[in-house]
Amino acid sequence: MNDAADRRIRTRDEPAGADDFGGQLEIWRIRMERALAARLPEADKVPARLHEAMRYSVLGGGKRIRPAFVFATARTLGLSEDQVEAAACAIELVHVYSLVHDDLPAMDNDDLRRGRPTCHKAYDEATALLVGDALQPLAFELLATDPALSASPTVRLRLIDMLAQAIGTFGMAGGQAIDLAVQGTRLDIGQVEDMHARKTGAVIRASVLMAAECAPPLDPSLYAGLTRYATAVGLAFQIQDDLLDVTGDVSKLGKATGADSERAKPTHPAIIGITASQQRVRLLHSQAINALAPFGERADPLRSLAHWLLSRQY
């Protein structure tokens, strides 16, 4: 998509009040809906039921937070959304795959996701397994071959490696394994934060650093600043999510609340309470903003994203 076309889309789709960051997020969300729809297999192609379920799961709503990290980092580093759109799609596909599998009876056994029946409820458990199995390789295919990703073969290989590490046993999958193993047990807050750094934080960190990988090489101190920012925001995002599971409105969240308590999950609110958890979010938010200081005003998109995420109520 060229710059002129992108400007036309922004003019047409820009919602009222788009001068605030919520408006920018909506612009990015609309962009992602189109980008994902274009890259998913058509629902009428064999195997049609699997392709239909993939589109149901991926295009069923969501705030597209991880792609927003990709786009905000790209803007900070002087890149256009076009240059990183395929990477944003790859990250969102692995995120959705993780949600489909997490919702299964063998994991969290959830009936509702984004205000709709979860994939295994809308289809069946076997199809839900296959949806996750299919979305993950599609993500890596985009990083390897998508023509919109104007990265060199060396950079593409690095992106593939970064995403693989983020969702492997030392990242998302490992965090989920720990989460399942410790339900009903007592952990200290350090152990909880390690689990969350893997389960949630690793993919958010990858969202920032994969965008950075698409830019010309950064000074090591700037790259370290992005890493600190992403690490702090990733953990704060999970704590905020756990707080919303206690205090949130089901009609706004699009999923049931109180699930963490029912499963006796070790979370910040369960261990240190709501007030201390809110204070921890504020501290991590401050650390994230401070990490961006070397970028000056260039990093305003990342600052605004952190402000929005950590004050959200849904």
- From the spread of the alpha carbons, the general shape counts as globular
Secondary-structure element order, N to C: HHHHHEEHHHHHHHHHHH
Q: If strands are numbered along the chain, what order do they take across the biggest sheet?
A: 1-2
Percentage of residues assigned to helices: over 70%
Poorly predicted runs are 1-19
**Terminal-residue CA separation:** 31 Å
What's the domain count? 1
Mean of pLDDT: 89
Tell me what the structure shows.
The chain is an all-alpha fold. The chain has a single domain, classed as Farnesyl Diphosphate Synthase, CATH 1.10.600.10. Helices cover 70% and strands 1% of the residues. It has 16 helices and two strands. The protein has helices at 3-13, 21-39, 48-58, 65-76, 81-102, 119-122, 125-145, 153-167, 172-182, 189-213, 220-247, 250-253, 259-262, 268-272, 274-291, 300-310, and strands spanning 112-113, 116-117. The chain has a two-stranded antiparallel sheet with strand order 1-2. Strand 1 (112-113) and strand 2 (116-117) form a beta hairpin. The longest helix has 28 residues, at 220-247. 39% of the residues are buried. Residues 1-19 have low confidence and may be disordered.
